[in-house]
Amino acid sequence: MTSFDKILSQKSIFKNLSVLSPHYVPRELPFREQHINEMMTVVSPALKGQKPRNLFVYGKTGSGKTCCMKRVMEDFVKIGKEHGASMHYVNCRIYNSRYRIMQKIMKNYVPELEKSGFGLPFLYEKMIEVCSKGEQMVIILDEIDMTRDLDELVYTLTRSNDEITNGGVSIVGISNKLSFKDSLDPRSKSSLYETEMIFQPYTAEQLQKILEKRVAEGFEKDVVESSAINLTAAITSQESGDARYALKLLNKAGEMAEQSGKEKVSDKDVEAARNKVETDLTIETTNTLPQMHQVVLYVICDLSISGSKYARLDGVDNNVLFSGEVYEEYEKACNRLKKRPRSSRWYKEYLNDLEVLGLIITTPSGKGVRGQTTLIRLGHDPKTVHETLKKNLFGSN
Question: In angstroms, rounded to a whole number, what is the distance separating the alpha carbons of residues 73 and 140?
C-alpha cells in the first residue's frame, strides 16, 4: 500500500520544485534590472507623500512584467506603511469589473466588505476617505485590458484624485496589448498622465542564463544536461521568448524523466515534454478566457472540425475560416446560451485578444477571394480545446 512516507523517502531528481513554478518571484531577475529600477523610480514619489504618475507596462506573456512588478511591490510594501503609502495587486482576469476590483482593494481597509450588499458609491467614498487621510495608494492592475468596464474603471480611479484632499490614487496597468488604450473613451484617456514601459521577449541566450540559474536551485546537481537547457532555450525563443513556457517545459521534461526512472534530463525528454506542455498551456489559457472570448473560440474550433462552407466555395484551404461566417455562428451560439451577442466591433476585439494569446492566426483575405474579409486559422489542434470549451459553456452534455 502506498503511503506519503514511502513517496517522500523516494529519491528525486528535483531539489526544490517551487523554484520552477511560473509564480515564483526570485530575488534576482536577470536582464530586467533596468526595468525594475525604472519601475521603482516611477512609484517612489508615493514614499515621499507625493502622487506618482500612472505607469503602463507592455510586453508579451512571459517577458517578466508581472514578476518585476511583484519584486518592486515586495520592497515597496516593506517600507510603505511608515511613509503613508500602500500598494495593491489585482489580477483582472479574476477580478474583471470595476466593482470587483474596488471591492478587493477596499477589503484591506473595511473587512466587512467580504459580505455583499455594499454598492459602488460606498466603495468609492471609502477610498476617498482613506486617501484623504494622506495615503498614497498605488493599484497594480495586471492584465488590465481584461476588465469588462475598463473605461469606467480608469475614469473612476483617476478622477477620484479630484476629491481626495491629501493623498492620491495611482494606477500601474500591465497588459500584453500595446494598443489596449486605443479602445478607451477620450474622457478616460485624457485623465491619464502616464509613463510607459515595454518589455521585449527574452532571447535564446538570455533564456539559457535564466534556466541555468533556476536549474541550479530547482534540480539536484548535474541532473539536467546542458544540451537540454540549450534546447529548451532555443525552442522557447523560436516560439515566443516566454520564460514561463521555458520553465514549464523544463519542469515537465524533469517529471517525465523521473517517471521513466532516469537519473538525467536529456534533449529527448525536452522533445517529449514539448507537445504535453503546449496542450496544457492551451487548455490553461482557454479556461481563463472571459465567456465571450470562449464563445468565439468555441465557434472557431467547431467550424475548424466541420470545415468552412465558404472556404469550399471560394477554393480556400479548409483549415481557414471567414470572419463573417464565424460571427454568424457566434450569434447562434450566444442565442443557445441565452446571451446577447456583442457588436462586430467587440467581436473584432475578441479576435485580436485571441491572436495575442497565440490561440488563433488572422490574415487579410487579399486577392482571389470574393470581397474583403479576415481569414482565421486556429493556432492549435481544434480537438485540444473544443471539448474543454464545450464543457465550460454548455455543460457536460
Answer: 9
Residue 329 has pLDDT above 90, yes or no: yes
Helix axis angle, 344-356 relative to 291-306, nearest 10°? 80
Of 128, 105, 103, 127, the residue nearest 113 (C-alpha) = 103
Report if residue 117 sits inside a domain.
Answer: yes
User: What is the domain extent for residue 86?
Assistant: 33-199
3-state secondary structure 114-157: HCCCCCHHHHHHHHHHHHCCCCEEEEEEECHHHCCCHHHHHHHH
Please give the tally of structural domains in the chain.
Answer: 3
> What is the C-alpha R_g of the chain?
24
Same domain, 330 and 369: yes
Contact by Cβ (8 Å): 68, 36: yes
Kindly state whether residue 22 falls inside one of the protein's structural domains. Answer: no
Q: Give the predicted TM-score (pTM) of the model.
A: 0.79
> Looking at 287, 313, 328, which one is the last position of a domain?
287
Q: Does the residue 51 lie in any domain? A: yes
DSSP bridge pairs for 232: none
Q: pLDDT digit string (tens) for 365-378?
A: 765 555 567 889 88
Average confidence score pLDDT of the chain: 89
Which of the residue ranges 11-25, 71-85, 114-128, 371-385 has the most confident prediction, judged by mean pLDDT? 71-85
Rounded to 5 degrees, φ, ψ at 171 are -110, 140
Domain C-terminal end among 199, 217, 251: 199
CA distance 107 to 297: 35
Give the domain CATH number at 277: 1.10.8.60
**Within a domain: 149:** yes
Spatial distance between the Cα atoms of 69 and 71, rounded to a whole number of angstroms:
5
Q: For residue 64, give the nearest of 195, 199, 207 by alpha carbon.
A: 199
Q: Are residues 310 and 270 in the same domain?
A: no
Q: Is residue 313's pLDDT more than 70?
A: no
